[in-house]
Amino acid sequence: MSLVHEPDYGTPASNAKEQVTLTIDGMKVIVPAGTSIMRAAALAGNNIPKLCATDMVKEFGSCRLCLVEIDGRNGTPASCTTPVAEGIVVRTQTERLKRIRKGVMELYISDHPLDCLTCAANGDCELQDMAGAVGLREVRYGYEGENHTKEAKDQSNPYFTYDPSKCIVCSRCVRACEEVQGTFALTISGRGFDSRVSAGMAEPFLQSECVSCGACVQACPTATLIEKPVYETGTPNRSVITTCAYCGVGCAFKAEMRGDELIRMVPYKDGKANRGHSCVKGRFAWGYATHKERILKPMIRSSIQEPWREVSWEEAIGYAASEFKRIQGKYGRGSAGGITSSRCTNEETFLVQKLIRAAFGNNNVDTCARVCHSPTGYGLSTAFGTSAGTQDFDSVEHADVVMIVGANPTDGHPVFASRLKRRLREGAKLIVVDPRRIDLVRSAHIEAAYHLPLRPGTNVAVMTAIAHVIVTEGLVNEAFVRERCDWDEFRRWAAFVSETRNSPEAIEKYTGVRARDLRAAARLYATGGNGAIYYGLGVTEHSQGSTTVMAIANLAMATGNIGRQGVGVNPLRGQNNVQGSCDMGSFPHELSGYRHVSGDATRQMFEELWAVSLDKEPGLRIPNMLDAAVEGSFKGIYIQGEDILQSDPDTKHVSAGLAAMECVVVQDLFLNETANYAHVFLPGSTFLEKNGTFTNAERRIQRVRKVMAPLNGKEDWEITMELSAALGFPMHYDHPRQIMDEIARLTPTFAGVSYDKLNALGSVQWPCNGKAPEGTPVMHIGGFARGKGRFVITEYVPTDEKTGPRYPLLLTTGRILSQYNVGAQTRRTANVVWHEEDRLEIHPHDAEQRGISDGGWVKLASRAGETSLRAVITSRVAPGVVYTTFHHPVTQANVVTTDYSDWATNCPEYKVTAVQVSPSNGPTEWQELYGELSERSRRIAQQKAAE
Ligand code: SF4
Ligand code: SF4
Ligand code: SF4
Ligand code: FES
Hints:
Layout lengths: L18 E6 L2 E6 L4 H7 L25 E2 L18 E3 L3 H16 L15 H8 L26 E3 L9 H10 L4 E4 L6 E4 L15 H5 L5 E3 H6 L4 E6 L8 E7 L2 E7 L12 H5 L14 E2 L8 E2 L2 H19 L4 E5 L5 H15 L4 E3 L6 H10 L17 E5 L3 H4 L1 H12 L3 E5 L8 E2 L2 E2 L2 E3 L6 H14 L5 H7 L2 H12 L5 H8 L3 H13 L3 E5 L1 H4 L4 H14 L9 E4 L6 H6 L6 E2 L3 E2 L3 H11 L11 H10 L4 E5 L3 H4 L3 H9 L3 E6 L11 E4 L8 E4 L4 E5 L11 H11 L9 H11 L8 H7 L1 E3 L43 E6 L24 E4 L1 H7 L6 E5 L4 E8 L7 E5 L27 E7 L5 H22 L1
Parallel strand pairs: 1-4, 14-15, 14-25, 16-17, 16-21, 17-20, 21-22, 25-26, 26-27, 31-35, 32-34
Antiparallel strand pairs: 1-2, 3-4, 5-8, 6-7, 9-10, 10-11, 12-13, 12-27, 18-19, 23-24, 28-29, 29-30, 31-36, 32-35, 33-34, 33-36
Helix pairs in contact: 8-25, 9-25, 9-26, 10-19, 13-17, 13-19, 16-17, 22-24
The site of FE2/S2 (inorganic) cluster (FES) has 12 residues, from loops.
């Protein structure tokens, strides 16, 4: 496999419908109006020399290398800035043009170090290419004059270097930072000869506002901005197209390799979710894959007090199977279960639920989506009939008003955030509904029209009040509702939301949202053109999570904002394959494609293919498994790629549940926190080491391709298959493509999916079947999946988690750009330079009242438990609200979260915990106790790291 070189057409594509015909060097070319001459020529295979142009950013016209002649026009216009026109005749290679280009290149080269042979970009440098393309053979000005070749490098960023001596001041980096990323971290400072690229206020990159997305590195045509591994190891020689394994955006990447060594991950321009962009995690934070703490050999121990013992795969799998059989023999068939992972592939997830249902013989399977987006599944399927977001990410480019509810895209879904910010800079309006002043409320060239800083736990009241304004002010799209929704249900709902108790004025006192802002925001959403809602865990992780999802769906239906580009209801999924793990039948009550296990026809289909009889009763959810373990009836669990001890609420209860089990099997890359309670550890493989598919937040199924052999010797699906065989239920697959074929056979929404199709089209969005053979980018066009859209009455029920004299503050949690989930991967990369520890954000008033200083240790206590961490004093949070992340196990943020959960799905109420904060001297007793256990369990990992 060779290196994939994506063509660079020099300027972005034009979306114009009108076609224009012109002649370039004697060839007739037909392109959309508005296309640059440079792009038109490149599309015809005629690449005009260029330096300052690249098709990821708008044309700039500074280098003067791309000049052309146009018959009948004077001068030599730049082809990158000159649009095509009907009938023009263009020449790209006349004697005059050749002479000018050589002159331009001479000037560049005279101020450039001539170290091509030892330069990191040797062979991958556009300046070098252009010197060749224009036939430069001599530099008349010499190299002795004043130049920049001695300027010092900036090595501060852990992932790339900036070497100003090689800069040609083409401004591609500056434009990429502005247009693609939207951070505006770079400028060209100085004038003329002194002009240079500067990060922030002429700071080192690491100290500037740069978020390390890598867009500038990708745009740079020279070695000025270059990835450190390329500098240190050399240029790659082959690439494999694959999908990021971090968040639910699902960015496509070229994994660029030399031999079996990964040199860099380059965002793939053909990736339909990311369109050639990335964030710091997918682009740079892949070093965990070869981290020395990775466990590569299976291990067992008969009690969690004992040290781990390395064993063969046969012994580990045999031991796990015999333990599960013993447990089920002694305590009953329902005494064991499993957890699938939203980080693993669709195929791996499908196999784990198959193993539980067919080999364990029960439905005790659940997934980590339980703790994040299970309310999305329930809410959207109730309202629309499908448990998924309605749009593709391209849709945001057509939105006029965007409402973000309980999500922080610049940290959680950065590439989507960049696409959104671009649309906002084009003039779309933004409404932010969030207790915190997230970055989108105000950042470079972006300002939300309204920020509704609601009190945590009052989402339903706020969404219902928005509906109140829409209904009572006559802003309902009645034609849409009459045609597409159940009219009687709508009328009942409209009467409910119109009640005075649901008005903005009535809810103001307990939501904290000013009535006039809420009214204005509601009017904007209802009347501002295409209205799109994007939401996150700030919606779902509440005791009324499912209700809020339905309240959001109500807003979209009432205003007719569903069923076309630019509108819709879009959950921003946390982990890379949350959508897929839910689709694959990971919930205890559903088989793949969200079909209830009690449905005889569906179950029979599976029974026939698997030649086994299946239980028709739903099994246990994760919290029920843990409750049953504490009660003594649940004794064994197989956990693939999930760290429930750190990610699930009420850590003490989770640890008590795990400690009460007789066989805990953990399959993971590292000895994670859950593994402290495990008896069998099966080493997992990274996304770089396996084949499969992930499904992102847009329902987009994309290939994950193996770029290197698994260091542990097996892909995760192979391990599940071996465990199943040892349990007496052999499965037969040679490659994950066969698993996908089985998924397609058993799942109507996946019926048209195959590896051949994914390889041919790049990706497809489900439903993909006979009716939609190439997938469905936008759902519910012309009709809802369930028939008529359903308005559900969304009565606000305050959470039982109440503040009071003992716990007067409300804690809410979230994530940060550089870290991912429980941090098991990102903490093992250089990303820790941006976030060494979790900290508690607290408002200055609350800090002052408690004598808390910025950076000082504080105790965070709730009725569930207490932990200690350091404080950050900031007005990003409102008075009465505190906020932290949960990326570091030592912080144990979930020790304080409670066991309250969503009424419909048991999704934990992470976003609302009544707490008290007080000054502290350091870690709590629990943190120290936990630290000791964790230390004991890690002994083997540390020994290995030292070897
Ligand atoms: S890495 Fe991204 S944020 Fe940083 S300067 Fe480059 S484009 Fe801007
Ligand atoms: S750093 Fe690279 S992209 Fe930026 S101006 Fe210099 S040469 Fe151009
Ligand atoms: S973490 Fe998300 S946004 Fe970042 S590169 Fe990966 S998929 Fe894209
Ligand atoms: S590429 Fe057109 S002016 Fe630089």
